[in-house]
Design a protein that fits this description.
Layout (H helix, E strand, L loop, with lengths): L11 E4 L5 E5 L4 E5 L2 H20 L15
Protein backbone atom coordinates (compact mmCIF):
# COMPACT_ATOMS: atom_id res chain seq x y z
CA UNK A 1 0.00 0.00 0.00
CA UNK A 2 1.04 3.55 -0.69
CA UNK A 3 1.72 5.81 2.29
CA UNK A 4 -0.81 8.53 2.93
CA UNK A 5 0.32 11.81 1.42
CA UNK A 6 -0.44 14.99 3.29
CA UNK A 7 -0.33 18.52 1.96
CA UNK A 8 -0.32 19.87 5.51
CA UNK A 9 -3.52 21.80 4.84
CA UNK A 10 -6.25 21.74 7.44
CA UNK A 11 -9.89 21.37 6.36
CA UNK A 12 -12.69 22.12 8.82
CA UNK A 13 -16.03 20.32 8.55
CA UNK A 14 -18.92 21.91 10.40
CA UNK A 15 -22.35 20.36 10.85
CA UNK A 16 -24.77 23.26 10.48
CA UNK A 17 -27.67 23.73 12.92
CA UNK A 18 -30.18 24.04 10.08
CA UNK A 19 -28.84 20.88 8.39
CA UNK A 20 -26.10 20.22 5.91
CA UNK A 21 -22.35 20.64 6.23
CA UNK A 22 -19.78 23.36 5.61
CA UNK A 23 -16.21 22.62 4.56
CA UNK A 24 -13.60 25.35 5.05
CA UNK A 25 -9.98 25.55 3.90
CA UNK A 26 -8.70 28.74 5.53
CA UNK A 27 -5.25 28.33 4.04
CA UNK A 28 -6.71 28.54 0.53
CA UNK A 29 -9.37 31.06 1.62
CA UNK A 30 -12.08 28.79 0.21
CA UNK A 31 -15.25 27.29 1.59
CA UNK A 32 -18.28 25.39 0.41
CA UNK A 33 -21.28 23.51 1.69
CA UNK A 34 -23.37 20.45 0.93
CA UNK A 35 -26.12 18.21 2.24
CA UNK A 36 -23.54 15.59 3.30
CA UNK A 37 -19.92 15.74 4.45
CA UNK A 38 -18.87 14.12 1.19
CA UNK A 39 -20.78 16.68 -0.89
CA UNK A 40 -19.33 19.57 1.12
CA UNK A 41 -15.80 18.24 0.58
CA UNK A 42 -16.41 17.65 -3.13
CA UNK A 43 -17.78 21.18 -3.50
CA UNK A 44 -14.76 22.50 -1.57
CA UNK A 45 -12.43 20.72 -4.01
CA UNK A 46 -14.23 22.48 -6.86
CA UNK A 47 -14.03 25.86 -5.10
CA UNK A 48 -10.30 25.39 -4.53
CA UNK A 49 -9.73 24.52 -8.20
CA UNK A 50 -11.66 27.63 -9.29
CA UNK A 51 -9.63 29.74 -6.86
CA UNK A 52 -6.35 28.29 -8.16
CA UNK A 53 -7.42 28.89 -11.78
CA UNK A 54 -8.35 32.48 -10.94
CA UNK A 55 -4.93 33.01 -9.32
CA UNK A 56 -3.10 31.51 -12.29
CA UNK A 57 -5.14 33.63 -14.71
CA UNK A 58 -4.65 36.69 -12.47
CA UNK A 59 -8.38 37.25 -12.20
CA UNK A 60 -10.55 37.71 -9.16
CA UNK A 61 -11.62 34.59 -7.30
CA UNK A 62 -15.36 33.91 -7.13
CA UNK A 63 -17.14 36.02 -4.52
CA UNK A 64 -18.03 34.05 -1.38
CA UNK A 65 -21.70 33.20 -1.07
CA UNK A 66 -22.05 31.62 2.34
CA UNK A 67 -23.41 32.66 5.74
CA UNK A 68 -19.98 32.66 7.41
CA UNK A 69 -18.54 35.04 4.81
CA UNK A 70 -20.96 37.87 5.55
CA UNK A 71 -19.17 40.76 7.20
Amino acid sequence: PLPAMSTGREIRLIEEDEGGWSAIDQGMNAASQGETREEALSNLDEAIELTKEACEADTDAPEPDAPWSEG
